[in-house]
Design brief:
212 residues, mainly alpha, 2 domains, globular, disordered N terminus, disordered C terminus
Length: 212
């Protein structure tokens, strides 16, 4: 086994930790500062929790970019885009002191991704390949086109789901439900795409394992 192949599993875990690190910081700071339900100053304390956690989220996102570059040697396009959105909507939240901007960020992000991917699919272009080609080696053009289409419509579902949660739950309820529900939904949807990708040439590393 080559050195590059040996390092790839740890790099994958490290990349995942860097991607989700800012979100963990955001959750930790918010719930550390969130008021008790019976607190007489619950509204002002909730606003403080939102502002402080948003500021921590923005800082952690910037740190994640630096760590990715330093430890992995590259910064993914997805990480760059998510950081730009975090800083943009986070700045609006802090300046306007309105939690709406934190809550609507996922809706805007998912709607944007969905629109771009579906339009690309209609035009016969698998735009998702530009972001994730390194993660799905061996997939043919037809497979990438189907994956872009499927993720595009899935992003629209996530956008609608986020808006439903935002409009029906408190900020804390939205944050908790959104974090775990979206993680489970994304993992399940990702797993559901594997059989299709295997039919279109997805390289699962069997040849490398047989040669070691």
């Amino acid at each position: 086994m080559s050195k590059d192949n040996a390092a790839s599993p740890s790099s994958g875990w490290l990349s995942t930790a860097i991607d989700y690190g800012p979100l963990i910081v955001f959750l930790g700071v918010y719930f550390w500062n969130a008021p008790a339900a019976e607190s007489p100053n619950a509204i002002s304390q909730t606003l403080y929790a939102v502002i402080s956690s948003t500021a921590a989220f923005m800082l952690a996102a910037i740190v994640a970019l630096g760590l990715s570059r330093w430890l992995i040697g590259t910064v993914s396009k997805m990480l760059i885009l998510s950081t730009v959105l975090i800083i943009g909507f986070g700045s609006l939240t802090i300046l306007l002191r309105y939690p709406f901007w934190v809550q609507v960020k996922p809706t805007a992000m998912y709607h944007y991704f969905g629109t771009v991917l579906v339009i690309g699919w209609i035009r016969g272009k698998a735009l998702l390949q530009w972001l994730l080609e390194a993660a799905f080696e061996g997939v043919d053009d037809a497979g990438w086109l189907k994956l872009s289409r499927n993720w595009g419509f899935f992003f629209f579902v996530l956008a609608a789901f986020n808006e439903t949660l935002r409009l029906t739950l408190t900020f804390g309820g939205w944050l908790t439900t959104k974090t775990w529900a979206f993680l489970v939904l994304t993992l399940l949807f990702s797993a559901s795409q594997i059989p299709m990708l295997l039919k279109h040439g997805l390289d699962v590393g069997q040849e490398d394992e047989e040669g070691t």
